[in-house]
Amino acid sequence: MQRILRMSVVTLAIGLAGCEQGEVAEPRDLPPPAVGVASASLREVRPATEFVGRVEAIDAVDLLARVNGFLLERAFEEGATVEEGQLLFRIEREPFEAAVAARRADVERTEATLLNARLQRERIEPLVARNAAAQAQLDEARAAEQEATAARHAALAALQQAEIDLSYTEIRAPFEGRIGRVNFAEGAVVGPASGPLARLVRLDPIFVTIPVTDRAMLAFRLSRGSRAFAPYLRLADGTRLAEPGALEFFDPEVDATTDTVRVRARFDNADGVLLPGQFVTVTVRATEPEQALVIPQVAVQQDQAGRLVLSVNAEDMVEVTRVSLGERLDTDWVVLGGLQAGQRVIVDGIQKARPGMRVQPVPAASDSGD
User: Fold this and answer.
1) I need a labelling partner for 306 at 20 to 30 A (CA). Which of 106, 140, 238, 338 fits?
2) For the segment 23-53, what is each residue's pLDDT rounded down to a tens digit?
3) How far is the C-alpha of 63 from the C-alpha of 188, rounded, in Å?
4) Concatenated DSSP letters for 82-98?
5) What is the phi-psi region of residue 277: left when phi exceeds 0, alpha when psi lies from -120 to 50, beta otherwise?
6) What global pTM score does this model have?
7) CA-CA distance, 224 to 86, in Å (whole number)?
């Protein structure tokens, strides 16, 4: 046992002596890690801003019965598209036809009374001229004629109202659109106080109302003179409508409660995809392209201070560069500030790079080569 201890001590002493004389080789320096880089490059873009909008119908109307009566017929299918002027409901006509006939009889009676009053006046006038009748008789005849004339006018007005009421027994579509659920069955008694029979909505074209912040509206107004914009729609499932709409209306004042301006855009909706009340994403995009600086999205990181990229300088040293970004374009970000065209950013091997260390940059597969 003592022999083993003596050998261990000798071995440790030899090892220490070798260390003191530098006989153990130090590890060689490792090469800089390879990282994939892409260059910030200029690209033609169309500046755009996204908003959340709500779809609204251009025309929507509740169909009401304007006279009281039995609902005889519903001449359409619920949810169908109807044409302008198409018959939708028919109310019992017979009572109103009878009222029209009675009012016509009243007109004929007042016309006969008026004719008699006129003849009486015409007979008395020459008699008064020859002093064969008193002036009072002529005055009475003239007053009777005027009363008969007024009675005839009243009868004509009553006839017109009766004919209007008769026309109200047929309810027709005021415009082309889609009609909703019917609230009354055939045979029900309906009238002005019974509520809507159904609702008709025009779906093509259609409006989208967009609440735009005062700041965004100011930027839009400042750039509108030199640049045109068009609105595009994205639905809840991510589907984008191919055709843009047209900006039609801007509120003349800012809503004090929301600090927004209401903007209205018009879109074609022939296939009925857009329905009033639904929310959509509206991208207001410039119609003419402009040059913008872009970098790949994978290069961007974020911490508590904001967004950043790891850039590589001329000496292949890693630097932290804070960036201000605009909108996304496919797999790129638009850079509003922090980078210059041609500046290299790390897109592959970010986990191997640290600020202040030297790296071996190699072009990433997605780099444009600018």
Assistant:
1) 238
2) 444 445 678 899 999 999 998 877 777 889 9
3) 15
4) E-TT-EEEEE--HHHHH
5) left
6) 0.63
7) 43
